Amino acid sequence: MVAVxxxxxxxxxxxxxxHGLQSNADYSLCLDTPGALSEKLRHGEIDVGLxxxxxxxxxxxxxxxxxxxxxxxxxxxxxKLFSRVEPARITKVAVDSSSRTSVALLRILLAERYGIMPxxxxxxxxxxxxxxxxxxxxxxxxxxFVAATVPHVWDLGQGWxxxxxxxxxxxxxxxxxGVDVALVAPILNAARDSGLRHREEIAREAARTLGLPESxxxxxxxxxxxxxxxxxxxxxxxxxxxxxxxxxxxxxxRPLRLAAPLPxxxxxxxxxxxxxx
Length: 277
What we know:
Layout: E1 4-8, H1 15-18, E2 27-31, H2 34-42, E3 48-52, H3 53-57, E4 63-72, E5 79-83, E6 92-96, H4 101-114, E7 119-123, H5 127-132, E8 136-140, E9 152-155, H6 156-164, E10 168-175, H7 181-197, H8 199-210, H9 214-224, E11 225-229, H10 231-246, H11 265-272
Parallel strand pairs: 1-2, 1-3, 6-7, 6-8
Antiparallel strand pairs: 3-10, 4-10, 4-11, 5-8, 5-9
């Protein structure tokens, strides 16, 4: 019998976390969108999933796997607001239908920096069409790499850094209730370590698939992102939760429960290896 059911994400930013994972006698692996994984975890169809942090704050899953996350500490490049008008004048925003945490982040940043709470409308990730009937558009992932000729482009990773001085953590490995972290942690830690060693290879393969420069994607995976959930990242999650409660993005605060204590030495060295989310 399969011991652990793992739900991973195939997006480029998550590939270092699932690199080398292949279903075997110890676990099964399914790849899906973050939103779909949240639902699977909610209904007990997987044991651990890489889910948007806002979904954990809304009650999905039981505990967070320590030591691993997706994070950026400044500009993230793949979560951007494109606006035809000055941000303070935005009244309608088209948002990518696949985004959850990024939508919550945008609501917080617009309210905190500009004092506005515009209407949000779900739309397919087509910048031209999004801006045809809206003041601004939120794009995430590969689509956000586009070089758009619009007056205002705002990187939300940078916006969060300026607001809080902290890294931003969009996704974490989340366990359902009753799952033994001793079974899960070795598998996912080994996958993360393998992914960190092969980021240049991952970028090279993605460049061929996406039609983007290999140097751009290598910089994204090796410098922009990091994959260690440490003390600053935990403070960021706590801060993000407080903002989510303030703006009614989540109904109430829930404990940020780790499945085990945060790693110290191993996790720290993994984070440092990305310098050269």
